[in-house]
Amino acid sequence: MTESADLASGDWASGDLDAERPSAARVYDFYLGGSHNFPADREMARRAIEMWPELPQIMQANRAFLRRAVTYLLDRGIRQFLDIGSGIPTVGNVHEVAQAGAPDARVVYVDIDPVAVAHSRAILAGNDRTEVIQADLRDVDAVLGDPRTTRLLDLSEPVGVLMVALLHFVPPEADPAAIIQRYRARMAPGSYLAVSHATHEGEPDQAGPHTALYQRTGTPMTMRSRAEVTALFTGFELVEPGVVFFPQWRPDPGTDPDDRPERFTGFVAVGRRE
Ligand SMILES: C[S@@+](CC[C@H](N)C(=O)[O-])C[C@H]1O[C@@H](n2cnc3c(N)ncnc32)[C@H](O)[C@@H]1O
User: Fold this and answer.
1) Which of 45, 173, 219, 241 has the most CB atoms around its CB within 10 Å?
2) Ligand 1 site, residue 133, Cβ cutoff 6 A
């Protein structure tokens, strides 16, 4: 089945989803100009954009970081990627960036959201160097032990683990730093972790109302400080320039520096597992 036939059939909108309740994956899809969202998602996204008109630009900056991080890891010889909280496919998916640079690169996508997973499967049908699994980041054994993961990823070799715009959906009581340590323990030395994370430190006035809106979703939001994001990298050596706002992380050559990078309100970093 072609992607368009699959999408036209509405398969992406079936399964165990709750269309009445906004989902972080589908709201994000709307911010990025996608069409895999429902009225409840659009209503929440429009309210958020009314309060904070720069949100779509912020999400695009997040996507641009993802692309730069994957390219950086490819340049360091990484050929296998685990993209957790991968979202609904859109322009510049990890396998597109990775396999454009290295056709033999393998990518396992993981998301908790059934629409994200269904749509990823439709896009990836026929690409035997990618897999998609529906799982919760917190269930480390389910993610790493899934036969689709073990088919593609050899964890005795370095792997690039991507947690991009994901960990702010993990509440403090779930202890994201401890979850990362459980992944770290299974990652070979020389592996990398890439993170982007919403923060209240960029635009403190916007952070409260925005976080309140996400209370409606199945994955409420927790913004974190630079110190908290840095602490997620315990046991990883941060690569230059460390934990910075989106546009400050290894910008493409020729890019003008942003006058107010803090307006992007998200910290990003890449660390090498020691
Ligand atoms: C904002 S999107 C980010 C998509 C993509 N990583 C990017 O940055 O463009 C966040 C994704 O994380 C997923 N997610 C939230 N909590 C999760 C969890 N506990 N386990 C797996 N995925 C989760 C959501 O369903 C959503 O698709």
Assistant:
1) 45
2) no
**At 82, which CATH number?**
3.40.50.150
Distance from CA of residue 207 to its chain's centroid?
A: 20
For every one of its 274 residues, what pLDDT tens digit does the chain have, with 9 covering 90 and above? 233 333 434 555 555 678 889 999 999 999 999 888 999 999 999 999 999 999 999 999 999 999 999 999 999 999 999 999 999 988 889 999 999 999 999 999 999 999 899 999 998 999 999 999 999 999 999 999 999 999 999 999 999 999 999 999 999 999 999 999 999 999 999 999 999 999 999 888 888 888 988 888 888 899 999 999 999 999 999 999 999 999 999 999 999 888 999 999 999 999 999 8
Structure tokens at 152: 């593609």
Query: How many structural domains are present in the chain?
Result: 1
Residue nearest to atom 12 of ligand 1 (CA): 85
**Domain assignment of residue 18, yes or no:** no
Q: Among the atoms of ligand 1, which is closest to the Cα of residue 23? A: 25
Domain assignment present for residue 73? The answer is: yes
**Does 19 reside within a domain?**
no
Among 166, 179, 182, say which to mutate for ligand 1: greatest number of ligand atoms within 8 Å of CB: 166
Judge whether 183 lies within some domain.
Answer: yes
CA separation, residue 161 to residues 25, 204, 234 (Å)? 19, 29, 15
Residue 194 Cβ < 6 Å to ligand 1:
no
User: Which residue range is the domain that position 80 belongs to?
Assistant: 53-273
Q: Classify burial at 126, counting beta carbons within 10 Å of its beta carbon; exposed 0-12, middle 13-18, buried 19 or more.
A: exposed
Residue among 70, 93, 111 to mutate when testing ligand 1 (max atoms within 8 A of CB) = 111
